[in-house]
Amino acid sequence: MHELQWVDELYQAFCQTLPGMLHAEAQGLACTLGLAPSRDIPWSAVFSHGITLAAPAMLTELMPHVRGTTVQDALLAHMLAIIDAFGSDRVADGQVRQTWQLETLLAHVRRSRDAAMQRLAALADGAAVPDFTTVDESVAQIIAQEREVLAHRHPVSQARYLAVSRVKQRSGIPASVALAAAAGWNTRWRETLSHMLESIWLALQFYDDVMDWEDDWARGGAWAVALTHGALQEQRHPAGDGPRAPVASALSLEETKALVLSTGTLVRMLELSRHEFTRARRRAEVLGARRIAAWARAREGQMRELVRCEAESPGYAHRARALSAWARTVLA
């Protein structure tokens, strides 16, 4: 069975464990979170890349002797962790209104995620299995810091952007590492897997931060703008001894856009994405994860071309996406 079919079937099975009053909320959760245009869209069709929800299942070529139920537990834990991460993040930044139904549903999501992780831990033969409780705490703290930085429009260095982004991606790692532990992988291989997944999530995040920066700025703050002003401030105070004053908010969107494009910030962010896809591909090759390596290699090539085009013609990435959306609508 294809792993994305598993995603939908496991989510439906999860919904059956919920109190009746939450069934409707659960069925339309992707739409509620602004991830799908309709309540009828299944989770398997929400994200552009299947690996987002199905990462553990894509590792099964390396674990031929692991039972299907164990893979399903890892897939369930991972899928629910990603859903909770998106839900918590969108509630925190005000994109989604918090309701008691949503709050209760996400609590059930976390409980089912943790129960699946406990079943995996029982098979790990004493190997250390990541704990989502610790991950949840660190991610919540870093998201609060992110909101503070972006809301007050502070200039940001690339180093800080990378540090914040790494913590934000931690939710996408534990379930796959727990599956590897259950499969008997040693510490070194589990660490390589963890680094591979981190690179994948970072690469996707950097790309999204480029493509969504105008919408993010309209909602109150965007990394692209913070990085632009951070780079300009570094030029004025290369020793780092100058004050990091908040970004002036008097600029219009068009003026801000011109500044972001003229400084090459989007090129640098896309290059960060390309770099992480390269790292992910190399680690996948070390592990022998051929499917993931092939996927990362394709994305690496696409990102390299996007970097080149954006450098030659600032704003290319957004124009290309707009044209693609137009073509899907008009030429379909």
Q: How many structural domains are formed by the residues? A: 2
Count of extended strands:
0
Helicity range: 55-70%
Largest sheet: none
Query: What structural class do the secondary elements suggest?
Result: mainly alpha
What is the rounded distance between the termini? 29 Å
Our Rg estimate from Cα atoms comes to 21 Å
Describe this structure in words.
The chain is globular. The protein has 16 helices and no strands. It has two domains: 149 residues, no CATH class; 138 residues, no CATH class. It has 332 residues and is mainly α. The chain is 69% helix and 0% strand. Helix 5 runs antiparallel to helix 6 and helix 5 runs parallel beside helix 7.
Which terms summarize this structure?
globular, mainly alpha, single chain, 332 residues, 2 domains, 0% strand
Give a brief outline of the structure.
This protein has about 325 residues and is mostly helical.
Give the SSE layout:
Layout lengths: L2 H14 L6 H5 L1 H4 L18 H4 L13 H25 L7 H22 L10 H20 L6 H11 L5 H9 L4 H25 L1 H6 L4 H14 L16 H10 L2 H23 L2 H23 L3 H15 L2
Helix pairs in contact: 1-5, 5-6, 5-7, 5-9, 9-10, 10-14, 14-15
